[in-house]
Design goal:
280 residues, alpha/beta, 6-stranded mixed sheet, globular
């Protein structure tokens, strides 16, 4: 049995990667989808050790990009892998190739937070491009009830995101603004994950949140910035030896809380974290 493994709480890149394999890699159309925690592999086996198991966007293997700061996504790695596997024996049609490569490029932009440069990122409609998706569902020859159910679920997702954005619009007025070595930054004790996204769309080069419930800290910086959180990472590790911290390969993302993994929250206060970031 063939199996595709990706991380728990899958994002667009994870889903797109698995979807590409099932749709375009011969013999993998009925592969089972399974999930594992970030930093682990399926059943604890070495990544890429079984020809019937593909880890995508997880496992730090050939189809994962989290060990590099290059402009990559798992979807891009998967698509390159598919083209190589099919080779000259089974040519992918020119239309399919163009369509998938444009799809993969958008997924890659989003996964690298390059969508913060999109003009529509600040607008409510960014969450709401459902009309073309609805038309696409209809073109798949789904029955009317299936289309209704799929679009209704998407509307529920839009509702959740917009609620978070509206809360963030109010929360940002009460947040702490401070100057970092890389530009204007903002921090707040807040559980609303949309705050991180919204604050970046407002131009803050660095956004810090500390969850008032579990104490976990998230530090995000814009991809178009010159932020390097290596020094800050080393400092917080030194100040709080008992907590877990993860520095992304890009050096622009520092996490003490992640939905895809259990991490021991820091005992540092938000003010102490801000102090560290002020020093670079």
């Amino acid at each position: 049995m063939k199996r595709i493994i990706t991380h728990v709480n899958p994002d667009l890149d994870a889903v797109a990667s698995a979807w590409l394999i099932r749709k375009f890699l011969p013999g993998w159309g009925k592969a089972e989808i399974s999930f594992c925690q970030a930093g682990t592999t399926f059943d604890g086996k070495a990544v890429d050790s079984d020809s019937n198991v593909l880890h995508v966007d997880v496992g730090l293997g050939k189809l994962d990009h989290h060990h590099t700061s290059e402009y990559l996504s798992a979807a891009k790695l998967v698509w390159d892998f598919i083209k190589k596997e099919r080779g000259k024996k089974e040519i992918i049609s020119l239309l399919n190739k163009k369509v998938v490569e444009r799809l993969v490029e958008v997924v890659t932009q989003i996964d690298n937070a390059y969508d913060f440069n999109w003009e529509e990122i600040k607008e409510d409609r960014y969450y709401f491009y459902l009309s073309p998706l609805t038309e696409g569902l209809r073109k798949l020859s789904l029955d009317d009830l299936s289309v209704f159910k799929e679009v209704s679920l998407m509307l529920e997702a839009v509702l959740v995101n917009l609620k978070g954005k509206i809360r963030a619009e109010e929360e940002i007025k009460k947040a702490t603004k401070f100057q970092s070595p890389w530009g204007e930054a903002i921090a707040m004790s807040v559980s609303n994950k949309e705050f991180l996204h919204f604050a970046q769309t407002q131009g803050y080069v660095l956004v810090v949140t500390k969850d008032p419930d579990d104490g976990g800290v998230r530090i995000y910086s814009r991809p178009d910035s010159k932020v390097d959180l290596t020094k800050s990472y080393n400092e917080v590790k030194k100040l709080d030896l008992q907590s877990d911290w993860f520095l992304h390969a890009s050096k622009k993302l520092l996490l003490n809380s992640a939905s895809a993994a259990k991490m021991k929250p820091t005992k540092l206060s938000l003010e102490e974290v801000i102090k560290v970031l002020k020093n670079g």
